Amino acid sequence: MSPATALPDPLPPLGLSWGIKRSFIDYINSLPDGAVSAVNGAAIDEAGLFRFAPDAADYDAVRGTGILRFRGDVRLAGHHGMMFVRLLDPWIAFTGGRGILSISTGDDGGQDRTAVAILRAGAPRDVGGSLFWEHVDVVISPEGSELFDGQYAAGQPMDPLFIRVAA
Predict the structure, then answer these.
(1) Contact 152, 138 (CB under 8 A)
(2) Sequence-ordered list of residues with C-beta below 8 angstroms from that of 159, at least 6 positions apart, any chain
(3) Residue 3 within any structural domain of the chain
(4) Range of the domain at 137
């Protein structure tokens, strides 16, 4: 397991933790002008996971439905500005054992969104007064494939993610 796919601590902090795609991040970091940044509620931890701070939520744990909102701005760039990927304020909408990970386009106060990934997520565990999903399988959506300029085809696995929110 690569560092970005292993659980970084016994219990991660509240929020969304995701390595995106380790091979892509390694590629960006290898570029002479590669840039990786995380601001405004996002951070990069020691294991290389991007952490997005928790925001408002309307998740129903009994039904397994609702939306978890996170905040933060992750930017990945290189090739003298010709490559640029931005993940802004992700949300996860759950319905029937699956989730859709969307990001803000930056328009309409964050309400205008693009679905970038599909999650296979079971029920969360109740751990220390929080709901915890670990090692959630992620595949890129058609819109996510466009975000990465077709580098990853729709349905291709990305790194798993971890979610921890207050119960």
Answers:
(1) no
(2) 4, 5, 18, 19, 20, 21, 22, 138
(3) no
(4) 15-166
Residue 149 forms part of a structural domain: yes
User: Tokens 């570029």 map to which residue?
Assistant: 31
Cut 0.85: pTM above it: yes
DSSP SS3 for 22:
helix
Q: Which strands form 35-39's sheet, in the order they lie side by side?
A: 35-39, 73-78, 83-88
Q: Across the chain, where does the E strand assignment appear?
A: 15-18, 35-39, 42-44, 50-57, 66-71, 73-78, 83-88, 91-95, 98-104, 113-120, 125-127, 130-140, 161-166
Does a structural domain hold residue 27? yes
pLDDT, mean over the chain: 91
The count of structural domains within the chain is 1
Over the stretch 110-166, which tens digit does the pLDDT of each residue have?
789 999 999 998 889 999 889 999 999 999 999 999 999 889 999 999 999 999 999
As a residue count, the chain comes to 167
Residue 83: how many other CB atoms lie within 10 Å: 18
